[in-house]
Amino acid sequence: MLIGIDMGGTHIDGVAVKDNKIIKTIKHQVDHTDLYRTILNAIYDLIADLDKAQISRVNLSTTISTNAIVENKTAAVDLILQKGPGINFEFPEIPSEVNYIDGYVDHRGKMVKDLDYQQLAVLKKDLSAREDLKKDLNKAEDLKQDLNMSQTKNLAVVTKFSTRNPEHEKAIADYFAADYNQVTQGHTLSGRLNFPRRVNTAYLNSAVYNIFQEFANNIAAALREVEINAPIYILKADGGTMPLVDAITRPVETILSGPAASFMGMSALFDNRMDSVLLDIGGTTTDIFFLVDGVPVFEPTGITIGQHKTLVRAIYSVSIGLGGDSCLSVVNSADGDNFNYLSANNSYDNNLAEKIRIGPERKGPPLLFGGTIPTLTDAMSVLHKLDFDNFSTEQVTWARQGITELAEQLALSAEDFAELVLKKAAQTIKNQVDNLLLQLNSQPVYTVREILADRQIKPVEVKVIGGPAKILAEYLKQVFKLNVLLPEQFKVANAIGAALAQPTMELNLLADTQRKILIIPELNIYEKIGSRYSLAEGQKYILQCLNQAAKKLSDSKLATEIIEESSFNMVDGYSSGKNIRIKAQIKPGLSCVIE
User: Fold this and answer.
1) Within its chain, how far is the Cα of 212 from the centroid?
2) Which tens digits make up the pLDDT trace of 230-240?
3) Total Cβ atoms within 10 A of residue 20
4) Run of H or E including 566
5) 477 in helix, strand or coil?
6) How far apart are CA 216 and CA 249, in angstroms?
7) pLDDT of residue 389
8) Are the C-beta atoms of residues 65 and 74 closer than 8 Å to each other?
9) In this model, does residue 165 exceed pLDDT 80?
10) What are the b/e assignments for 434-471, b being 16+ CB within 10 Å?
11) Residue 80 and residue 101: Cα distance in Å, rounded?
12) Burial readout 132-157 (b: 16 or more C-beta within 10 A, e: otherwise)
């Protein structure tokens, strides 16, 4: 039996899957003041009448890391970089002072200039003095928030070309380790080259470490309390999973775990063969994805979150601040949106729509659930599109009163205002999809399988999941003018995706026959090879390493493949050799097909 739990910004969903069938689902509100109790209650409810001994795996997805970055609730991080000669990179997006040190490793991993340990000693003393000053300032309780400081501090260390030779990075990390709660070394996060992205990735890994560790501890404690002993995995941004114990050391990989669960859920519930738009409409946001011939569009170099460009592999997705709990307001036309929401020949409705603002923020639950500000859900309530058996007369009246107060500002009835809100919500999503397609179709399209140089994405259908999906489907059909599909389990598709996702991994092999060295940074492999080492030997070796890693990740047979390979000659003075590069992966996929 597989258990899937998706913890979003508004709801926590859970599913149990056995023998290719969904045997139980749950949906609870998230209590942000007590996440442990939220998780525990959801698990109790989900397994209440199930045989716990049959649970073989628990898969989780969460927005905890993403939200920490977006809401600036991350740990304080010191950053030590060794950039060597060349471009003088700056990192204004990182809210930490960057500390540069001497030393240099070249692009082939040769040690050109060694570390200056006297310089490290001076830096260590300086960092300690800065920390003492901040602690003194933090003694004043009212300054803690302004300084955005946690009581424990983390460190990120990145040296240029550390994937080719990590000796300097390891030495620096070891030198400072005793002074920090946690240390990230850049070469451990990805085998791909890109110094600026590696710096951002290492910084974020340390920044979200504390909050993710707390989440992981809560999950582990909750499962222990209900006596579930199955292995625990967490979703990564590429749609695969990794063991929770590994995620604690590399929490940056769990960024956009929520959208990944959305996509995997849609993969499980839909027959995906054509160009499609995929939408997950939740309580806080709408996540947008695209398929090319049924294959997801992929982020080729890594995801961008906020201002941070990273090396984290990910399914291409974009989130917009529109969901069931998005707050509604009426604004002046000049403060609203200045493009048409409805048909061009309906200028009256267009002018009114410009005065309605949906989101982008969530300011609490809908009026229907005891909130204080009207939301998209309240508009649905006014149009009798919700199951009123679940609400009291007082709840329904309170929601209608809030919508009526907004409607009166535009001289509309509550029903007409609510109808206009839902039309605008659908058109807002359509406009964002159109903008994204313009961007994607102006450049090569990357999928998890290949690069499509001259391929245009031309969606022929829209597939929708999420709590508000069924209600908004008819409005989306009007604006997209395409068939809109909705699966039976649309409300808990994310949890289904989490339950069925399989482990993934990417490995990068570099063999330099002139220097007689082979490296696979992700596995910390740095070995000697012969001068006649071949591409075929590299292919065999990387798949062997990947298959061994796959056995540790799952009892099931996981598919592995080589996705990139190259071999070219090098000449250095009077000697020559080959540079062999191979990239391989455990393919993202589902552990079973839902019947």
Assistant:
1) 13
2) 999 999 988 88
3) 11
4) strand 560-572
5) helix
6) 11
7) 67
8) no
9) yes
10) eebbeebeeeebbbbeeebeebebebebbbbbbbbbeb
11) 7
12) eeeeeeeeeeeeeeeeebbeebbbbb
